[in-house]
Amino acid sequence: MRRSDGVRWWRRGRGESFGRWLLRGPAQVMFLADVRTGAVFCLALATADWRYGGYALGGAALGTGTARLLHVARDRVEQGLEGYNSCLVALWCAVFLGAGRLSTALLAAAGCVVTAVATAAVVRLLHGWRLPPLTLPYCLLASAVTIAAPAFRRVRPQDAGLAALPGPATGPTGPHPDDLWRAFFRNISQVFFLEQWYAGALLLAGLFLAGRVVGLLACAGSATGILTAWALGAPAAGIADGTMGCNAVLVAIALGGVFLAPAPATVLYALLGAATATAVTPAVAHLLAPSGGRAFTWPFVLTTLCFLAAARSFPRLADRTPAPDADEVRPQLPGATARTA
After folding, report:
1. Which is nearest to 80 in space by CA: 62, 66, 60?
2. Domain boundaries, given as residue ranges, for the chain
3. SS3 of 319, please?
4. Which of 124, 199, 306, 327 could form a disulfide with 194 if both were Cys (CB 3.0 to 4.6 A apart)?
């Protein structure tokens, strides 16, 4: 009996290669091309809800597959750079619109395909400044859907409340000591929209699996987010649930050794960026309050792009500038493993 084309495609090694590209999508949310880290990240998502892991992998597959069909540069596809924004878009739909709804699955699928186009547009627009796209395509798609959702009854969950205008912060500002260690891990889990501290612990384990430096940078970013939010008098609830510090984690990793050369001065610069992103988070949330007040990763994107552009004016930080985004292959942190085979 004649073998199917799909089986022959897989046995020629292409299916196996696509599987590696697929797992690099979730890992690239944290700037890593490590297949093992991507697998651990998916496991962490599944501990909260098995469907979240499915949405993340499905989103990465749609984004990567669409980019491959459109003949995007092969190195971007192989490194997972075409999968991480679509991974976040699909996961965001699952978490905030309901993973069990058919409309959510259809919207997530369409959003992932559009994300591939948005990624190409953002890459092209930022090419002149030699800046990376980061999670800007995801932010654009998620913000657009959030703003438009109330107009579509099949998109917005029927029990969703109306958005409220921003008001002054209320409640105690000193988190309970028992909340601090949970906040430390939730700052990491909230990168993937999860409140479970144990998911954050597993995500952190995945980072350390890739390399000690990236794990330590994530820890430093989380601690900086907590300290900055507490020093500025943020409500304890916002600190404890991780929403104030999640962007600080991403900024610390991005500036501490991914897009700038690892060095003591770079780490201090990265932590300054992490503190800045924490302060920017409520500003973005207030601006988006009429549509639900979700900051997404806008604070990370705005802070990182600003700090990367400014770094070129500082000789001690300009040893490594961001890669041209059209050919972007993210530099690896010392000790981090990127399996490209």
Report:
1. 60
2. 12-158+166-327
3. coil
4. 199
